Amino acid sequence: MTEAFTVPLNTRNNDLEVVGGKGRSLSRLANAGYNVPGGFQIPISAYRGFVTDNQLQDRILELSIPTVHEGAISFEQASVNIAQLFAEHEQQADKLAAITAAYDELPGQPSVAVRSSANAEDLPDLSFAGQQETFLNVTGADEVAAAVKLCWASLWTVQAMNYRHEMGIDNRAVAMGVVVQIMVPSEVSGILFTANPVNGDRSEMIINCSFGLGEAVVSGQVTPDTYVIDRETLGVRETVLGDKAQQIVADGAQGTRMEDVAKEDQATSSLSEASLTELAELALRVEEQFDGVPQDIEWAIASGRLYLLQARPITRLPPEPLGDIGWPEIPGAQLYKRMASEIMPEPLSPLFEDLYLKGLYDTQTWPDNWEWKGSLTRNYLSNFIIATVNGYAFQAIYVHQGEESRDHWAKVRSERGVVPWYRSLITVFRQPRSTGPTDKVDVNNLNNLNNRNNGNGATRMMLLMDLKGSPQHWIWLVYQWSRMFIKAEAVTRWRRESLPTYLGKLDRWRELAPGEATNQELLAGMKALAMAETRYWQVLRAIIGAAKMTDQALQNFLKVNAPDMSLSSGTFLSGFESKTLEAEMDMRAIADRIRSIPSLYELMIITPVARFLDELKVHPEGNGVLNAINHYLDTYGKQVFNLDFVEAALIEAPLPFITNLKAMVRNAGFDLTRRQQEVRSKRRSKWFQALGYFLTRRTVTDPNAWAGAGVVSRWGMLEFIRLYWTARINYPIREAAIFYMGTAWTLLRPYALELGKRLVDAGTLVNADDVFYLTSDELQQALDAKVQDKAMPELKAKAAAQRQLREQRKRLQQPAAIPEENQLNWAGGGDKKTFDTIKVNTTDAEVISGFAVSPGTVTGIASVIMSPDDFNRMQPDTILVCPLTTPAWTQLFPYATGLVTDIGSITAHGSIVAREYGIPAVLGTGNGTRLIEHGQRIEVDGDNGSVTILKD
């Protein structure tokens, strides 16, 4: 049976593939009795028939391939050629007759709007707004027929093809329906959102409107009036009048024109209170018509009547805000965004919080009867606890613990004044260096604060302070110099024991394939891998601490003794070899290989990144590059973007890597070797400059530095050399150790997703990754029910609720500390600010404060990248602005001229990598990603820790 060439506007055969997105929506509204302007539709089959009858499909697909110029694609010529193709072919006589008949049935030979209705538009994730053409004020059957063909051709406009290319939509699957509707001579028209499209607030509706036809509002050609409507009362919460300087009106019998709005009307409200209420009531009914899904509604008012022109789901509506959310304190504790919580930037998933945070507790030794109580676990010891508030992770430091530590150090200082220096020296060298490796961190010795001979390394350092600044200062200096090139004990132990042990445990679980494991084996594997990862973190703590202390000691020394030299520790801790640079070199090798093969270069440039690997697999010359990519992902793709295993690593979700590989293929001119030579040359120059500066100066160590109390020294140059080499020896190891962090998750996630798939089959879950939104106990309950062939729908609902809650919490602004005004003093007498990773900036700040971590000043355009999903927004030679960086983010650094983060401090990952690349960096701004807009010009001062938003 042949489909009709035209169908009524209110056709009930309104599937997406029959009439397209706009046609489907309008037919539903018309059938429901809404005041929709009359007309008819030309279904998608008519487009396909025209293309088939004229044998155009293969030609269109051939012509739609973009051209490549200087590494960029262009659809300009493709669009021109396809438009010409449509122009060269006429509608068959019977099709023209069908259009004429349908038009003649409309009352009075009216002017109409001819509107596109593609099968991939007006969807929740793909609006295609403005990508295809609409023709307004078309009069006459012949003109309508011509507009229909132009509408079909607009499926192949530059913007439409670009949009599909970026969204990964196959050109072979798209087709176009057309809606023909009687024109409404709008006096006022606009858009209504039944939820706030900016912040997701479902309690308010937003109206944008202006005089004349709605095209002026939709296309952004005027500044419209804006009304915020309360959904409950339908009252107006806020009114912002736009200038409404111009309006679009019908231009005689054909087309439209722009004309000025009378001056007296520009300052008046375009809608009366009664019209606002009527419009709000209509919007609520329309939303209910579409099953309560928030709608983006186009409407018009003419001669006092309200017309409904279109309704579609709001595209990518943010989650509903949580409202007025506080950040409650945990009694007796001060919470900081530091250590492990620093690499947990988003709200934690329930399963991660259950397995990992509990694992941190289980991998430490506690007194008998000390219970795990989640975030309320008391920690009056020197243990490491992560607490959560509103799902966000913080390190909990207990006030009582701080007081206990201060009392201890006060007692040590009072006692050491009566101890002869030679006894202190003997005691120092009798101290044991290490108690050996263990699976648990034993805090018993650390907690026995009354015994000064307990082997505590910090106590040993306090005894050495007896010698510093005394007549025997030279002995202290000799001791320190003797250890200058010796790595911290934690570093040595990591290389010899901790890392091999960690990787060995992972290898044992790697032998168990997820598909072959029993349900209980999967759950047991998840728990064991989480425990292995937490044990590895306990090792990282010591390595990070060693790097941070030595870096901070050098930083403080320079700050106190060379304030006029603009020197920082980052000046001297840059340009070292690292896994980060190895990864870039390997990626560049792949890019060079692609660039050397013309067919692969073209494939890389013109293929959407989402489809590149699939296309590469079937390309006759792609095998070598595919193997290189797989090797790269196996080597570097296990690094995590976020310590929470709810987020996949590159090896599982390589799209960010492919995005950056494509950028690297486009930009061939960068010379990594030369850049590193320049960074090292600058470091050496500053080194000799500093040596000369300190040669004859008496120096003082910062009283707040952990390297010791304020002591005047005659050997300033020697102090500088010692601090420099101590930092240089320990500093690079941090990044080497962090490289393996999260490797266990590349095994845990396949186990979890396999378990989730089985629970989906059992009817307990909807999606396999719902497992991350339940606890291990709840998963065990689901498995027990599965054994009895039972589903647990309550867990399905709970997982959905937890997923939504996490998305809502992502929009919260986490504080730097809880409570923010509290200040704890640390054991060595230093202020806790040394350990901050977030500064506090006001929402209207034009100069943003952060931590100066990598020296230099740069002015440029900001690329604001919030997550791996945004990696394609990173532009070459711009300043990277992001929440934080982990090793998986380093692929963006080759394109960055500077770095700004919300979270981080002197030894955060971003600090280290910025120094390696020799770019200025300011970390820990708190809300930099909210204050800085993508594409805005900013200045990053890596010497003073400030970011200035520049005025154009």
Q: What does this protein look like?
A:
Mean pLDDT is 84; it is low at 431-439, 441-458, 702-712 and 825-832. Among the domains are: 7-182, ATP-grasp fold, A domain (Dna Ligase, domain 1, 2-Layer Sandwich), CATH 3.30.1490.20; 188-313, ATP-grasp fold, B domain (D-amino Acid Aminotransferase, Chain A, domain 1), CATH 3.30.470; 745-809, no CATH class; 836-949, Glucose Oxidase, domain 1, CATH 3.50.30.10. It contains 31 helices and 29 strands. A hairpin with a 2-residue loop joins strand 14 and strand 15. The protein has 952 residues and is an alpha+beta fold. The strands form seven sheets. An eight-stranded mixed beta sheet has the order 22-29-28-24-25-26-27-23.
Low-confidence stretches: 431-439, 441-458, 702-712, 825-832
The CATH architecture of one domain is 2-Layer Sandwich
The radius of gyration is: 33 Å
Specify the helix fraction band.
40-55%
Q: Mean of the pLDDT scores?
A: 84
Write a brief structural summary:
It is built from 31 helices and 29 strands. The protein has 952 residues and is an alpha+beta fold.
Features:
single chain, 952 residues, alpha+beta, Dna Ligase, domain 1, D-amino Acid Aminotransferase, Chain A, domain 1, eight-stranded mixed β-sheet, six-stranded antiparallel β-sheet, 43% helix, 15% strand
List the helices and strands and how they pair.
Layout: E1 7-8, H1 16-31, E2 39-42, H2 44-53, H3 57-63, E3 67-69, E4 72-74, H4 76-87, H5 93-104, E5 111-118, E6 134-139, H6 141-153, H7 158-167, E7 176-182, E8 188-193, E9 204-211, H8 215-218, E10 225-230, E11 236-240, E12 246-250, E13 256-260, H9 263-266, H10 273-289, E14 295-302, E15 305-313, E16 333-336, H11 350-362, E17 386-389, E18 392-398, H12 399-416, H13 421-430, H14 444-447, H15 457-464, H16 473-482, H17 489-510, H18 519-561, H19 569-572, H20 579-596, H21 598-606, H22 609-618, H23 623-636, H24 655-666, H25 672-694, E19 699-700, E20 712-713, H26 716-738, H27 745-761, H28 776-787, H29 793-809, E21 817-818, E22 847-849, E23 851-854, E24 857-864, E25 878-882, E26 896-901, H30 909-917, E27 921-923, H31 928-931, E28 937-941, E29 946-949
Parallel strand pairs: 24-25, 25-26, 26-27
Antiparallel strand pairs: 1-2, 2-7, 3-4, 5-6, 5-7, 8-9, 8-14, 9-10, 10-11, 12-13, 14-15, 16-18, 16-21, 17-18, 19-20, 22-29, 23-27, 24-28, 28-29
Helix pairs in contact: 4-6, 5-6, 11-18, 13-15, 17-18, 18-26, 18-27, 18-28, 20-23, 20-24, 22-24, 25-26
